[in-house]
Amino acid sequence: MRIAEDSYGSENVDLVSYLLADSSFWASLALVTFLVLLAFLGVFKSIGKALDDRANAIRGELDEAKRLREEAAEMLASYQRRQREAEAEAEAIIDQAKSEAKILKEESRKELKERLERRTAMAEQRIAQAEAQAAAEVKAAAAELAAAAAEQILSSKMKKTDLNKIVDADIKTVGDRLN
User: Fold this and answer.
1) Sign of the C-alpha dihedral computed for residues 34, 36, 40 and 46 taken in this order
2) Which residues are within 8 A (CB) of 19 and not within 5 positions of it... i.e. 6 or more apart?
3) For 170, phi and psi rounded to 5 degrees?
4) With bands split at pLDDT 50, 70 and 90, how would you rate the model's confidence at 125?
5) 118 Cβ contact partners less than 8 Å away, ≥ 6 residues apart
6) Which tens digit of pLDDT belongs to each residue from 28-86?
């Protein structure tokens, strides 16, 4: 059994000497010591606080971005509503203009038709007056010619007194017909 103890003990010595000679053991021991020192000095709390502060700052920026996004969405909705209202107003103005144009067109047609009817009536009246004047002139000329012809015929066949009576009667008849 002694052999086993010796060999076990020497293995222990060998393991300790191996660990003391190994650089990774010393690096690990230095790292652990450094981390314990940092924990003792409160560096991890400072790092945690800095990370928490940074997280809070990011959260604040995200909240601000969310608020700005909501404001932008409200502004967009407002502008879209205004655009729809402007389009509706423009359509109403166009419809009103079309309606007014249609009314003006109808009024212009009606006015033109009335003007043409008045001018036509005036022209017809002038034509009727001209026809009446021409007819009166023709009648007067015919009456004068008839009177002159009758005077010549009667003067050759009748006495002057009979002739004057007939001429006076004819002039009176022609005068009554003209009036």
Assistant:
1) positive
2) 25
3) -65, -40
4) very high
5) none
6) 989 999 988 888 888 888 888 999 999 999 999 999 999 999 999 999 999 999 999 99
Mean per-residue pLDDT, 145-166? 71
The answer to whether residues 109 and 151 touch, using CB atoms and an 8 Å cutoff, is no
Task: Give dist(CA 143, CA 172) in Å, integer.
Answer: 11
Predicted confidence (pLDDT) per residue in 97-123, tens digit? 999 999 999 999 999 999 999 999 999
Q: What is the DSSP letter of 1?
A: -
Three-class SS string for 66-130?
Answer: HHHHHHHHHHHHHHHHHHHHHHHHHHHHHHHHHHHHHHHHHHHHHHHHHHHHHHHHHHHHHHHHH
Q: For the chain, give every domain's residue range.
A: 42-178
CB 148 within 8 A of CB 156: no
Global pTM value: 0.39
- The candidate with the shortest Cα–Cα distance to 39, out of 28, 47, 50, is 47
Share the mean pLDDT of the chain.
84
| Burial of residue 70, with CB atoms counted within 10 A of its CB: 0-12 exposed, 13-18 middle, 19 or more buried | exposed
Q: d(Cα 51, Cα 45) in Å, to the nearest integer?
A: 10
